[in-house]
């Protein structure tokens, strides 16, 4: 039994509602990936404050890899090239920009009130504009991050969307042409050295994880029987890949992170859980995963900073639990008061504009 798509005031496009109804497991995985990143930042925050030898929750960083693979799959799964590059681009902008811009402006407000809280983050006109329009730049500490530091992953997302939109505009329909463009860029980037931050950033092999998602989609579309009722088998392959990772410390990132993330995404595609209250709640958390991903670092930092020096293990664990719970609560709030209303408003505007286009073109 699958979850029913939300109707009425739902902010999602028809393609998004269909994907959500069919791919419940992927919704659950979206939350799991976001929460893994939350755990990673809890561990890194405690490590920095108390001098722990390592980040005990370091494995949570794989959540970013999972997000990229999911994105590649979802874009290939839901995009209808017949609707054109404009429709595709606007749908993606509506999904990404409202919350990201809101939280970025929040960082600007913090810079005006308590700049000491932002460490190496310098807020000025240039860094603000580059952050808002997804242009990579280096901070004082050398990190290529926008003002809202986790937005570095959104720079990759928006670049992927741009490649996809250009391919649609050129009549290169389907997910294969964008995948070829990305693979070509990465290959060229290995041989052509350019002293340019954007060039180095967008030819980073990490962007291949979008292609992994596209590959999962192509396999799922061409050989659906490979995925039917095989969740446990594919999960077994995923677990085996983790063992290989642990036994091979110097394993290339493609095998250490990218391929396991792709296998895990594949494992969720045939999972059809019963519609229990718990599943409904976790699907809601999947909806709010974008808000959770972007907002949690500042909650984690604030709570870890509040711990007294020399705090023991029990207070540290307590802060970790509190940070997790508060981050999830805030993400649901942000989803309901910013993400969903913004998508409803903008999708409604796009729909009205589309309906009015024929009349507008007919006007002399």
Overview of the structural elements:
The chain is mainly alpha-helical. It has a domain of 104 residues. It contains 14 helices and no strands. The longest helix is centred in the C-terminal third of the chain and has 50 residues.
Specify the biggest β-sheet: none
Number of helices: 14
User: Strand fraction band?
Assistant: under 5%
Task: Output mean pLDDT.
Answer: 87
Oligomeric category: single chain
Structure classification: mainly alpha
Radius of gyration, taken over Cα atoms and rounded to an integer in Å: 21 Å
Strand runs, count: 0
Distance between the termini: 53 Å
Order of helices and strands: HHHHHHHHHHHHHH
State the low-pLDDT regions, or none.
1-11, 359-364
The coarse overall form would be globular
Percent helix range = over 70%
Short précis:
With 364 residues, the protein is an all-alpha fold.
Supply database-style keywords.
disordered N terminus, disordered C terminus
Chain-wise SSE layout:
Blueprint: H1 14-22, H2 24-50, H3 62-78, H4 84-113, H5 125-132, H6 152-169, H7 176-191, H8 197-202, H9 208-222, H10 231-247, H11 253-268, H12 277-287, H13 289-306, H14 313-362
Helix pairs in contact: 2-3, 2-12, 2-13, 2-14, 3-6, 3-9, 3-11, 4-6, 4-14, 6-7, 7-9, 9-11, 10-11, 13-14
